[in-house]
Amino acid sequence: MNGSRRAGFSPNRRLFLRRVGAGALTLWGARLSAPRARAANSPVEHVVIVVKENHTFDNYFGRFPGAEGATCGRLSSGEEVELTDAPDALPIDLGHSHADGLKAINGGEMDGFDRVHNGSYQGYHFGYTQYDESSIPHYWAYAKAFTLCDHYFTSVLGPSFPNHLHTVAAQSGGGFDNPKGSFLWGCDAPQGTLMPVVRADGSVENVFPCFDFRTAADLLNEKGLSWKMYAPQDKTVSVEAFGAMRSVRLSEQWATHVVSTREFFKDASQGTLPHVSWFVPEVLFSDHPPLSVSQSELDTVRLVNAVGNSALWKSSAILLTWDDFGGFYDHVPPPQIDAIGLGPRVPTLVISPFAKPGFVCDTQFEHASLIKFLERNFGLGSLGQRDVAANDMMDCFDFSQRPRAPLLF
Question: What single-letter DSSP state applies at residue 201?
């Protein structure tokens, strides 16, 4: 197993929640990297942010040559086990709540992934599985041709909804778990739907999951730059983050800027993609267990091909990431930078003519790094949240290199 136990970690959850008030930067594993102040000088005019679901770095790229990966993991009993071959679709979903994340990470020991909900069955440990090049060949091909990030962590130690909020706003309002009381989240949720959030004093409060904080869309609007969220066709999927923003959901922007995933392929073919696109795939192609990984991968290929075959490829960057750890094993302790994060590493690929070819980037990133990249690339200013300290993903690019051709399948 690559990586070792770290000394001095405490799994005390009460202390974990209290630290936000003090603003401490106590870490579980690595130090928080200082932000880089550098001008982009970037030819990237179109950024496509694609957010898939529920896999860790070790689950997808633990066997990737040259990456910080692991092929075995430690159980809560102390036993070390091989990460076995994962099926195309697991028979169940794994627990990935905030509580499950605390169990899995176990204060930085990274040995509790068999303790998450549905983590084990008759001696089989669902979370201790991984894919290889033969099972996700296109993802591996993109990693070999472009840039793979092996220290990209989720912003929240927890599930989808708060992490999706970070991909548009570099914050979740302190939210660290999915809302309860309904399967519909955001401003359209029925009354009684509540989401737990950590307040500045460390207390936890349950709030209705419809928010007023600013997002990257506000920064883009102020600069006169275009954006769209390409969301599942009925726009009711709960992880669609702009549905939880009053400024979007309760304005005309909901009709003009939040559109079906079908529109992405039309806009790409016509060369009319906006400056920034967020793409949340249809549920069937989300990668969320127990759905098929291979079918999701083919949907990603369809998106990359659409950009690659368009006139926009020469000025585009596709940032492909996963929202949360999904209950799967990862061996690298996530840095603790506040009361709700960071969470375990997830796979992240940068696909662009200007992405460093065959490069494994070990700079520390999180979902707020997506926002930081937009801010640096387009000169947007700042949201004043996690984006302030996040690294901006510029290390994944070389704007002086000869632009690379698209990788098409």
Answer: T
CB-count burial class (<10 Å; 0-12, 13-18, 19+) for 8: exposed
- Rounded to an integer, what distance in angstroms lies between the CA atom of residue 62 and that of residue 297? 17
Q: What is the torsion angle, in degrees rounded to the nearest 10, for the CA atoms of residue 366, residue 66, residue 7 and residue 163? A: 20
Match 């990359």 to its residue by tokens: 304
pLDDT in tens, 96-120: 999 999 999 999 999 999 999 888 7
For residue 265, report the phi and psi dihedrals to the nearest 5 degrees: -70, -35
Strands 80-82 and 72-74: antiparallel
- 3-class secondary-structure state, position 282: coil
**201 φ/ψ sector (left φ>0, alpha ψ -120 to 50, else beta):** alpha
CA dist 79 and 1 (Å) reads 12
Q: How many CB atoms lie within 10 A of CB 34?
A: 8
Vertex 185: Cα angle to 302 and 241 (nearest 5): 45
116 touches 327 (CB < 8 A): yes
Q: How many CB atoms lie within 10 A of CB 143?
A: 28
Contact between 185 and 178 under an 8 Å Cβ cutoff? The reply is: yes
Of 68, 77, 15, whose CA–CA distance to 333 is shortest? Answer: 68
Across the chain, which distance is largest between two alpha carbons, in Å? 57
Q: At what angle do helices 293-308 and 261-270 cross, to 10 degrees?
A: 30
Distance, in Å, from the CA atom of 196 to the CA atom of 208, rounded to the nearest integer, reads 9
- pLDDT, position 275: 98
Low-confidence ranges of the chain (pLDDT < 70): 1-40, 236-239
pLDDT in tens, 296-312: 999 999 999 999 999 99
Q: Which of 108, 114, 141 is nearest to 129 (CA)?
A: 114
Separation CA 243–CA 184 (nearest Å): 10
